[in-house]
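Sequence, please.
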């Protein structure tokens, strides 16, 4: 396993493409949220017009619309919170960060990609407190590349599971695709993820089991 001094600078072109993809995905989801809010505001306007013209107002209908506003607002706030954390991960390539929060963050931002393919995404994470010293943006990029490779060949109804735990001086992130996809994981994406991992002194391994294909990212924890 390489140590902290073996880590290489980010590939600027790859990093920019990754940031752009995540930004586009978040903006699409925010647009969907705002479209729903706009539709509900139109319903509120219709109800107000009906009441002004002598029709009886249905309190339950108003309550349903208000609850929809609240749901979409909470959804937007939560999404923007995750995107803010993601955006700030580019600030410093050598910081101490908490692995559970990082995995939860990139998993949340990857949910839309899974939903578009009608896949189920699950996270299985240890308690908080597993710290790593390194590049939080690069680690997010590697994990997303693994997720992308896992999602690519899966048919609708497939399950992607992300888990993370400590193992001595390392941290392990497992990304599994079930059932085992046919055809196999796209070699180009997997090879790119392996190369990315090496730039961070990490190691990516792929195992093919009877129930799932599992990618294991081993990350040195550094001087935490």
């Amino acid at each position: 396993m390489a140590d902290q001094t073996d880590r290489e600078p980010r590939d600027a072109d790859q990093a920019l493409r990754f940031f752009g993809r995540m930004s586009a995905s978040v903006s699409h989801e925010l647009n969907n949220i705002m479209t729903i809010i706009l539709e509900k505001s139109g319903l509120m306007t219709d109800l107000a017009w009906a009441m002004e013209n002598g029709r009886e107002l249905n309190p339950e209908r108003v309550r349903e619309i208000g609850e929809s506003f609240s749901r979409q607002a909470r959804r937007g706030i939560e999404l923007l919170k995750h995107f803010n954390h993601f955006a700030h991960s580019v600030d410093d390539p050598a910081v101490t960060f908490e692995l559970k929060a990082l995995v939860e963050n990139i998993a949340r931002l990857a949910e839309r990609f899974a939903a578009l393919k009608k896949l189920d995404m699950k996270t299985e994470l240890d308690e908080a407190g597993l710290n790593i010293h390194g590049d939080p943006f690069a680690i997010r990029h590697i994990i997303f590349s693994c997720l992308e490779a896992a999602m690519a060949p899966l048919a609708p109804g497939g399950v992607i599971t992300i888990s993370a735990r400590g193992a001595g001086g390392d941290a392990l992130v497992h990304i599994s695709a079930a059932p085992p996809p046919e055809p196999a994981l796209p070699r180009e994406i997997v090879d790119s993820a392996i190369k990315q991992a090496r730039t961070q002194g990490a190691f990516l391994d792929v195992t093919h089991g009877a129930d799932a294909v599992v990618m294991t990212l081993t990350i040195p924890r550094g001087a935490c």
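The CA atoms of residues 96 and 133 lie 4 Å apart.
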